[in-house]
Design brief:
Layout: H1 13-41, E1 46-57, E2 67-74, E3 77-85, E4 91-99, E5 102-108, E6 113-118, E7 121-129, E8 134-142, E9 151-160, E10 162-163, E11 182-195, E12 204-205, E13 210-221, E14 226-227, E15 232-240, E16 245-246, E17 254-270, E18 277-296
Parallel strand pairs: 1-9
Antiparallel strand pairs: 1-4, 2-3, 2-7, 5-6, 7-8, 8-10, 11-17, 12-16, 13-14, 13-15, 13-18, 17-18
Length: 297
């Protein structure tokens, strides 16, 4: 009689289980190390943001495959950062890397803690839907002061509010040259309050303070030298103060106005795939000239 020993073709499950557990432990333990190393070796002077733009119509319906252009708003005028088409659901995604320029560390009452304050970066998002011939824009301030470093995300929404005239072939129209960016200085009241006898008050803007100023725009047709819409607001730019400014405490029957001198920039940005332009007035520079206006009450 020949004795036969049956050898199972199945692998040793116990060994495999122990190996799998060991690999799982190694992978899990390596994740915090990987995340930690990412933070250690990330460039401290830059902030990475994954931006997602959602485009919709005035009635709330998402625009399908909208045209998108994104600009960095600078003192020399808008500088194109990215362009492309959105998805069927009206979404356009891209990553931006901006500088982290440290200004100050201050206590923020809304957050109930101190934070590092950095200079904000202002961007302009243009959107256009060729199926409805409508356009829209949005000015967004990206501020590393309130973001996770080194990576964070931002979701914004652009509404197509401006209906543009249709043409047989808008791209073949003669487009006259538009004026280059220009600037103007304007004194702007940034805070007002009133005091009374024996009631003392003052205003102070430390380094790193944020001032938001509304942006205005309208649609310009250079071929016929006419405006197609009235002025509307597309958002706000954010100015971060480089120098602290304040006043001594005042009292008496007075109304107090604290005034800064701002530099506003007028520029023209082409609406994608049309002969029309957005004429935009925006604030990017603050000239550190201030004065106090008091009026007897």
């Amino acid at each position: 009689m020949i004795m036969r020993r049956r050898v199972s073709s199945l692998p040793n499950l116990e060994n495999i289980a122990s190996t799998t557990v060991a690999l799982f432990v190694i992978i899990v333990l390596s994740l915090p190390l990987t995340i930690g190393l990412t933070g250690i070796f990330a460039e401290p002077r830059v902030q990475n943001i994954d931006v997602q733009v959602r485009v919709k119509m005035k009635n709330g319906v998402l625009a399908t495959y909208p045209r998108i252009q994104i600009y960095h708003l600078t003192e020399q005028g808008p500088r194109l950062l990215a362009s492309g088409s959105g998805s069927q659901n009206g979404l356009y995604s891209w990553r931006i890397t901006i500088s982290r320029i440290w200004k100050n560390r201050l206590y923020v009452s809304e957050l109930k803690r101190e934070i590092d304050l950095y200079e904000a970066t202002n961007i302009l998002i243009l959107a256009y839907d060729d199926k409805t011939n409508t356009a829209g824009s949005l000015v967004v301030s990206i501020d590393p002061s309130f973001m996770k470093w080194p990576f964070d995300s931002l979701l914004t929404e652009v509404t197509l509010t401006d209906e543009l005239p249709r043409s047989i072939d808008t791209l073949s129209l003669e487009v006259l040259s538009v004026p280059p960016p220009s600037e103007t200085w304007k004194d702007t009241v940034v805070v007002e309050f009133a005091v009374w006898d024996q009631i003392w008050a003052n205003a102070y803007f430390p380094i790193g303070s944020k001032i938001d100023v509304q942006t205005k725009q309208r649609v310009y047709d250079p071929s016929n030298n006419r405006y197609l819409t009235d002025w509307t607001s597309s958002g706000s730019t954010t100015i971060t103060l480089d120098v602290g400014r304040g006043t001594q405490e005042i009292t008496g029957k007075l109304k107090y106005s604290h005034i800064f001198r701002f530099k506003y920039i007028l520029c023209y940005v082409n609406i994608p795939y049309t002969p029309y332009y957005y004429e935009i007035v925006m604030l990017l520079i603050l000239l550190m000239i201030q004065y106090i206006l008091t009026v007897d009450l």
